Automatic annotation (TrEMBL):
SMART domains: HTH_LUXR, REC
Natural source organism: Streptomyces violaceus (Streptomyces venezuelae)
Taxonomic placement: Bacteria, Bacillati, Actinomycetota, Actinomycetes, Kitasatosporales
Domain HTH luxR-type, first and last residues per copy: 150-215
The entry's keywords: DNA-binding, Phosphoprotein, Transcription, Transcription regulation
UniProt KW Membrane keyword: no
Protein name (Swiss-Prot/TrEMBL): Response regulator transcription factor
Annotated Response regulatory domain residues: 6-121
InterPro entries documented for this protein: CheY-like_superfamily (IPR011006), NreC/VraR/RcsB-like_REC (IPR058245), Sig_transdc_resp-reg_C-effctor (IPR016032), Sig_transdc_resp-reg_receiver (IPR001789), Tscrpt_reg_LuxR_C (IPR000792), WalR-like (IPR039420)
Modified sites of kind 4-aspartylphosphate: D57
Length: 216
């Protein structure tokens, strides 16, 4: 039996945090490693506990969730799944820029929350392709954004890696990419890992945003 997914819950509202913890503890394959009431505590506990994933509220005192996400991801302490009350607010865009692996609405049903945690923990990152495509399109289309890269960065990728990157830009999961490109899902995971390394990106969500920005 594989070890459970260790999750750190970062949420400043105690009632909401208690509800999230209750849901997570209902799953035998998920373990609540700790709880944080603000962004600074979230980063400190991530350093101390080294969870697999941080469930991060974007609006918190002392240090907001976006800044906390950036620190956690930059230090490679854990993957981050951000929580928000609105699917297209500026905090979510900032969290994706900071390297979050995905986002989730606070009104998500318990079953979907658990599946989202499992999805991010296994490296997928794109929780709901339909919603993610909308989010990525809105983010990439903002006129005030600064370009993150020039098309020349694609020269680092093989033809197959470019194809996989294009699929990520459409919000496809590994399984969907495997079907689209007629390859094994394990091979897709390998290509995703390699292209993230070559492009110096921290998550597949960032890769999806880059694909949108470059129009591939």
């Amino acid at each position: 039996m594989s070890r459970p997914i260790r999750v750190l819950v970062a949420e400043d509202q105690s009632a909401v945090r208690a509800g999230l913890v209750l849901i997570l503890r209902s799953a035998p394959d998920i373990e609540v490693a700790g709880e944080a009431a603000d962004g600074e505590q979230a980063v400190a506990l991530a350093r101390e506990l080294r969870p697999d994933l941080v469930l991060m509220d974007v609006q918190m005192p002392r240090l907001d969730g976006v800044s906390a996400t950036r620190q956690v991801v930059t230090e490679r302490l854990a993957d981050v799944l951000v929580l928000t009350t609105f699917d297209l607010d500026e905090y979510v865009f900032g969290a994706l820029r900071a390297g979050a692996s995905g986002f989730l609405l606070k009104n998500t049903e318990a079953r979907q929350l658990l599946e989202a945690v499992r999805t991010v923990a296994r490296g997928e990152g794109l929780i709901s392709p339909a919603v993610t495509r909308r989010l990525i399109a809105e983010f990439a289309a903002k006129p005030t954004r600064e370009p993150t890269a020039a098309p020349a960065v694609l020269d680092r990728l093989t033809r197959r890696e470019r194809e996989v990157l294009s699929c990520l830009g459409e919000g496809l999961s590994n399984a969907d990419v495997a079907d689209r490109l007629d390859m094994a899902e394990a091979t897709v995971k390998t290509h995703v890992s390699r292209l993230l390394g070559k492009l110096e990106l921290r998550s597949r969500v960032q890769a999806a945003v880059l694909a949108q920005e470059l129009g591939i």
